[in-house]
Design a protein that fits this description.
Blueprint (H helix, E strand, L loop, with lengths): L1 H21 L23 H32 L28
Helix pairs in contact: 1-2
Length: 105
Amino acid sequence: MTGILLIVQIVLVVMITIAVLLQKSSSIGLGAYSGSNESVFGAKGPGSFLAKVTFFLGFVFVVNTIALGYFYAQQKNASVVDSMVETTEVAAPTINIVNDTNTTK
């Protein structure tokens, strides 16, 4: 489960980075390369759309981070001994000791 959440976390980081870089800033940033067709995003342009996407991605990122922390804490509390088999069907080997009384010193 933590592996899937970790992959989702990495994808979210990349998506948030792209969403932030595409937003319009005082020096326009990478938003200048998105094209001039603003009708797809509505009358206000991509500014409010990208702000909403960034907020949503940030919220999902925080929730995913909390879930990762919870699952990693659960793994930390688990012990290897908890997963060991309690009973085995293997018998211990026996050693037969023979008293040799015929030997001379």
